[in-house]
Write a structure and sequence with these properties.
The complex is a heterodimer. By secondary structure, chain A is α+β, with helices and mostly antiparallel strands. Chain A has four helices and nine strands. Chain B is α/β, with parallel strands linked by helices.
């Protein structure tokens, strides 16, 4: 292709990265981060946010994104230069991180189907947080893959509704952000 | 600590931040601040005629003085009219604080009269922005806005203040030197990397300095240090549009501007160099041309205060995050202390090659004794004004490129142009701001007849404040750059690029209360330019130039730096770019 503009990267491998971003919990900070991703054409596969240090008003945002090595490097720099951002850590680059997700799964049914749902939930170590004569709400914590597997199985047992938190992540070992 | 209203805090903070001028336009949601301003004289307000003009004027003020430009506008349309200027300031890294009025907090979100989501709209076109919901937060946010605007890579900051917060009373605190909680840009470069850069520079056989607006933003001392480093090394220098003036154009080591309309010698030097030292520039697409053919055999050093600029478009070998002035200082010191010596023989050969390219005279054009060639007009303007240390602003288009090519700059902060965003209508208000920052100086807006009409209303501002700006219009009755690209890419079908029904610019100048001059004869051009310079009032100079002249040299789309086309080599401009290139420009 011939153009003054750069060509799209060819044959470069896209990789998934989990980024932890510590931000000042000021109004609009989430819009600023989400807007950066949409404005510059980056992907968001999962995004979780909550205040983690109340006195300091610091929130931790965990973003799962995908891109080439160049793009991931850009994302980190672009995040880092936002005024309310304290620190950006690439948990994927700094080693094998703990990544967990919580899901609430509602199944509706009677008879054998209902028994099977309960049996499977116990096999997965899910908690039953609500039960009626015709339904269960299970709570499951695990990797995204485990949750995917559980949801696939529940599809055959009267799956009615799913709510997932997205990934919360942390680096292993003594070192902290 | 003193109790005052939010509006009074704004004025007090402006005073405490050393603001002398603020550009603005009043309206309902900003009236309390205008009222607070009424009772003092330290901060002088400049009433523009359109909010876009206010922002560009503040840009001209900031770019020519190194200070933070300040803007005051109302909610809704006041804020949305400022958006183009804010985007322009973000793209060109201009420090600016823009204060916008907002409807009272209890009405936010109710689609109130003159309400808009100012922080939402300006989030992507500011470095940072704030909606102040409590008067207790106002003093801190105001001071922080100035800090964020001027530290690190400069940029525009919006502070949106609801009307009830302007009326509310609270305690004002003066600015402190406390470190910002999160925003602490790195000024000093990593010494190990600077050392590696100096070693690479000393080993170069075909080096080049490629400098940009970052050198200007780092202050006049950065330009001094650049000159020192270039003198020490004897290496050639080229610059982006934004960096003109950081290195004197009169120096034999100056190659002229690089990029799409850069000189032959600058672009070929970039293409063939073995070590590129990029200081405060960002490898913009108008500079690099085709990326995979950009300077293919060079090691690259990149100095930038913004870490996200490094490795963004072009992978570099040594990336140094830091302020240009600090890093240049370290480079000069290290070069001296290490006793580095350039390879004299290789450098002499390199200069010989470069001189061969220079001999091609890429800025040559066919002179005319009957019509004024636009290049000739700029050359004469330069010759007749150069002893007055003039400040030049431009609009956007062919005239802008001709100004960059044929006007020569010797000092930083003398050249105000819209580089990144390419905003037509920038030059006239920027000249207003520049003249205000430099009373008594000669300030010229080199304009096109199409661009200048976009913010022509600011002539009134110039008259009101007795700012004797000179608007030098290269009038070819076309949106010249659009027409040139239509010739290149669209079979010379001039779709809507002819300026029909132009005003009589001489009468227009007079209607505003200024002075109008028209010239179409090359023999009378010098006298007409002298008349313009000698008129102590705003002048519109309608310079009727050759209509079909195009801007060369040029790197056509789909080509590399070493495939540029030169003006005298073009027979059929429509055949210069092949079909595939046309698709993708």
């Amino acid at each position: 292709m011939k153009s003054h503009y750069s060509e799209p990267p060819q044959g470069q491998i896209q990789a998934r990265h989990t980024l932890s971003v510590l931000v000042d919990n000021e109004p609009g900070v989430l819009a600023r981060i989400a807007g950066l991703f949409s404005g510059r054409g980056y992907n968001i596969e999962s995004l979780t946010v909550s205040e983690t240090e109340h006195e300091q008003h610091v929130s931790r945002i965990t973003i799962v994104t995908a891109g080439t090595a160049n793009v991931i490097e850009q994302i980190k720099h672009q995040l880092d230069r936002l005024v309310p951002v304290h620190r950006v850590t690439d948990l994927t680059a700094s080693g094998d991180a703990v990544e967990r997700e919580l899901a609430l799964v509602k199944v509706v049914g009677k008879g054998e189907q209902r028994v099977e749902a309960l049996r499977l939930s116990q096999a997965f170590g899910a908690r039953t947080v609500d039960a009626t004569l015709t339904s269960f709400v299970f709570e499951l914590t695990g990797t995204s893959e485990e949750i995917e597997r559980f949801i696939r199985l529940m599809a055959g047992c009267g799956l009615a509704e799913v709510s997932r938190t997205g990934i919360a992540a942390m680096g292993r070992g003594a070192e902290s952000m | 600590m003193k109790e005052m209203t939010g509006a009074e805090m704004v004025i007090q903070a402006l005073q405490d931040q050393g603001v002398e001028h603020i550009f603005g336009y009043p309206g309902g949601a900003i009236l309390p601040i205008y009222d607070a301003m009424f009772h003092q004289e330290k901060v002088k307000h400049v009433l523009v005629r359109h909010e876009q003009g206010a922002v560009h004027a503040a840009e001209g003020y900031a770019r020519s003085s190194g200070k933070v430009g300040c803007v005051l506008v109302t909610s809704g349309p006041g804020a949305t009219n400022a958006v183009t200027g804010l985007t322009d300031a973000l793209m060109d890294s201009i420090p600016m604080v823009c204060i916008t009025g907002q409807v009272p907090t209890h009405l936010i979100g109710s689609d109130a009269f003159q309400e808009c989501d100012t922080v939402g709209i300006t989030r992507h076109c500011t470095k940072h922005n704030y909606l102040v919901k409590r008067v207790e937060d106002l003093p801190r946010i105001l001071h922080e806005a100035f800090y964020v605007a001027s530290n690190g890579r400069p940029g525009p900051v919006v502070v949106d203040i609801p009307k009830d917060v302007q009326f509310a009373k609270g305690l004002y605190t003066r600015p402190t030197n406390n470190q910002h909680k999160t925003y602490r840009p790195q000024l000093k470069g990593d010494m190990a990397k600077i050392k590696a850069a100096v070693e690479l520079m000393a080993s170069a056989k075909r080096p080049v300095f490629y400098t940009g607006g970052g050198v200007i933003n780092a202050g006049p001392q950065a330009s001094e240090l650049l000159r020192e480093l270039v003198d020490l090394t004897g290496y050639p220098v080229t610059s982006t549009l934004m960096g003109l003036g950081a290195f004197p154009a009169s120096d034999p080591k100056w190659l002229g501007m690089l990029g799409m309309h850069g000189t032959y010698e600058a672009n070929l030097t970039m293409h063939d160099c073995d070590v590129m030292i990029c200081i405060g520039a960002r490898f913009d697409d108008r500079i690099t041309g085709r990326l995979d053919a950009f300077s293919p055999n060079s090691k690259k050093i990149h100095v930038d205060i913004d870490p996200s600029s490094i490795n963004k478009n072009v992978r570099v070998d040594v990336g140094i995050v830091g302020d240009c002035a600090h890093v240049l200082e370290d480079m000069v010191r290290l070069w001296r202390s290490s006793g580095a010596m350039p390879d004299k023989k290789a450098l002499a050969d390199w200069w010989k090659t470069i001189d061969g390219w220079r001999a091609r005279k890429s800025l040559a054009y066919k002179p005319s004794s009957t019509t004024i060639k636009p290049q000739y007009a700029i050359e004469r303007l330069y010759e007749l004004t150069k002893d007055r240390d003039p400040f030049i602003t431009t609009e956007v288009g062919q005239h802008q490129m001709w100004a960059a090519q044929y006007f020569h700059f010797h000092k930083p902060n003398r050249w105000m142009t819209s580089g990144g965003l390419g905003t037509m209508g920038y030059g006239l208000p920027a000249a207003v701001g520049t003249q205000l920052a430099h009373p008594g100086a000669l300030v010229i807006d080199i304009a096109g007849e199409a661009s200048v009409l976009m913010n022509m209303q600011e002539m009134s501002t110039a008259l009101q404040y007795r700012l004797p700006i000179k608007i030098f219009i290269l009038n070819n009755e076309y949106m010249g750059m659009v027409r040139q690209w239509q010739e290149l890419l669209h079979g010379s079908r001039y779709s809507e690029s002819y300026s029909e029904a132009l005003p009589d610019f001489v009468k227009l100048a007079e209607a505003y209360g200024g002075h109008g001059i028209r010239c179409s004869d090359p023999a009378q051009l010098d006298d007409a330019i002298r008349e313009m310079i000698d008129t102590p009032r705003p002048v519109i100079f309608d310079c009727i130039v050759e209509k079909m002249e195009n801007c060369f040299p040029m790197i056509p789309s789909g080509k590399a730096h070493n495939e540029m086309i030169l003006g005298d080599a073009v027979e059929d401009i429509g055949s210069v770019i092949d079909a595939k290139g046309k698709m993708l420009v």
